[in-house]
Structure formats: structure tokens, C-alpha cells
Amino acid sequence: MTKRERFWRTMRFQEVDRLPFWADWIGPFDRWHEEGMPKDVDPFEFFGFEGVISAFWGNPRVPVNLGICPGFEVITLEETEEYRIYRAGDGVITKARKGVTGYPTYQWLEYPIKNRDDWEKFKEEQLNPDDPRRYPQEAEWQRLKAEWKDRDYPISIDGGSIYGFPRNWIGVSNISVMFYDDPDLIHDMMDYLADFFIQVLDKAVKEVDVDFALFWEDMCYKSGPLISPDMFRDYMVHNYRKVTSFLEDNGVELSWVDCDGNIEQLVPLWIEGGVTGFYPLEVASDMDAGKLRDQYGQKIVMWGNVDKRALVKGKNAIDAEIERLKPVVDKGGFIPLVDHGVPEDISYENYLYYLERRKEITGYK
Fold it and tell me: Exposure winner among 105, 219, 353, 361, fewest CB in 10 A?
């Protein structure tokens, strides 16, 4: 069974020899090297992963840029021994602490879009769907298409972001207020983005046999969404349906969304919008793949939902987490992965043990 056949049989709830062995979003390599992981190895090859899937990076995927292009020039505005303030490539004035290990922390001070005039300027300068830099150069594009033509593995493509992109350009607090102060502007932005994604993706999906699209939102926190379900329906469902219908018409029959936090209230709305795949299903936000499977049956597919905190606690906690997810694995349509990034406090020994247990319940011999 090829990797591509294995992926599709898993997603279609059919019998497989084993599940796809995808990579987690790893990892604390400096620590792991100190604890015995060989240096000078490609970690994905070393662990034997078949691919790493993400909305905006990873392999294998179609490298089409749905974000801002060309982006802003990065300019340092202030720098001390403790921090640096700079304009980032997305136009946000950002403060970053120095000397932080692991996942960095930032403070966002100012955003590029504050009003309609800013949006019109931003759209003109950064969101031209016909910018040739959104695709690889022609020779490389032709090489990639030839490589993918007879492939035996699945490939993904970015689907875009209806809320997450504007949130990054406006700020969480600012966009929350803007929904009330200037709802027409939010409608204009989200409607434009849906059409923009279709225009950019048109060439790719007509020239490449793409397996699935992956949207990104990160629009939920521990207890629920950052906007109400009613607002999601009003502003977003029709735009999702527009993009997913376009993808389906061009052979991309499966769409996923990468959204952190507790997404339970939004799952039925994403389904209505044509999105049926969900990741990372963070356990700390009370997401439970078993509960979702019972609720939605084979209407949805999932990956993630391995509690990263269990990998910190040790083998007994890992065993319990694997046993919790085994019935979900057995029902199909689910690939267990760590529910977001693998943090610094997970040891190399615990990570290896988790991989072995994961292999046991996913059919590896």
C-alpha cells in the first residue's frame, strides 16, 4: 500500500495496513542532542516520519503563497540588551525578548490596519493575486509538477485564512471592536480574501492533482471562540463555502482547518462551510477526539489530540494517553499526533517512548 493510498483509506474509514506516520510539530532538538539524539541528522528522516503537515510550511506541499507579498521590510526601531523592537515582515511593530529558549514570546505594539484607508492601501500593496512571486519560478514549477505527477504520497496546499489573517493585521482586541464599530469593513476584508484565495489557487489546482487543503485560523482560546458562532455564520461560513466549493470543483475533495483552543462551537459551522478535517484538538482546551467521533461519526476526520502534558509526565501518563486514543484510532479517520508543538520540557526518552506506543496502536510492526 502506498503512502497516498494509506492516507486516503484512513480518511475514508477503510481498512489499512497501518496509519500514516506523520511528524509531530517537533521539537527541542538542542535538549534532545544533550540526551542522546545523534547530531547532524535530519530529525524527520531520523525518526522515520513520512511527512510534516502544516498550513504554511512542511513537506510535501504545494508552495503557493496566500499571504502578504512582498511583505514589509524588517526594520529595527529600538534595541537593548533585554529586548528588540522592530517592524516585522507582516507590518506589525513587535517587541521580542532576548535570550529566551524554546518557543519565543512577543508583544505586539502596533498593527498595519486600523481603518478602511489602511485596508485599501494594504490590499493594493500586499494582496495582489497576480503577483508572480506567489508561485515558484517557472522552471522550478515545471520540475515540481513532473515530480508530483506519478507520486505515491499525498500532497497538501494552503487553503487560506478568513479570520486569522485579518486578526494578525489588526490585532485581537482591535478586530473584536471593529466587528461592532465597522462591520462593513470586516465583511469587505473577508469577502475579498475568499475571492483572493481562489484567484491565487486557480493555477495550482488546475495543474496539480492536490489531495487536500489546509486552512489556518487559531481563532479559539481555552474556553471557546474569539467571536460568537452567530458572527462566524454571518461573516465566514459563506466565504468558506465559496473556497471549498472551488477546491472541490477542481478535485480537492478534502479541506482541513488548523485551529488551536476549544473549537467545539465552530465545528458544525466549519462543516457547513465545507471543512471536515480538524487539528490539533488541544486536550488542555478540553478537546476530545473520542467525543467528536461519537458526535459527528464519519462526517469529520481528525489528527492530533495527544496531550503534550502526558509526554512530560512520563511513561505511565503516556500509556494512559495512548489507551485513551486507541478506540478512536480503531474507528478510522484519525491520526494521533501531539496536540500542537512539542515543548522544551519533554525529554528525548519520553518522546521516543511515545513514538513506540503510537506505532503500536497505528499498525506499525
Answer: 105
Cβ atoms of residues 214 and 54 within 8 Å: yes
Write down the architecture of domain 3-68+112-361 according to CATH.
Alpha-Beta Barrel (3.20)
The residue ranges of every structural domain in the chain are 3-68+112-361, 73-111
pTM of the model: 0.94
Q: What is the pLDDT of residue 100?
A: 76
Q: What is the pLDDT of residues 216-233, one digit of tens each?
A: 999 999 999 999 999 999
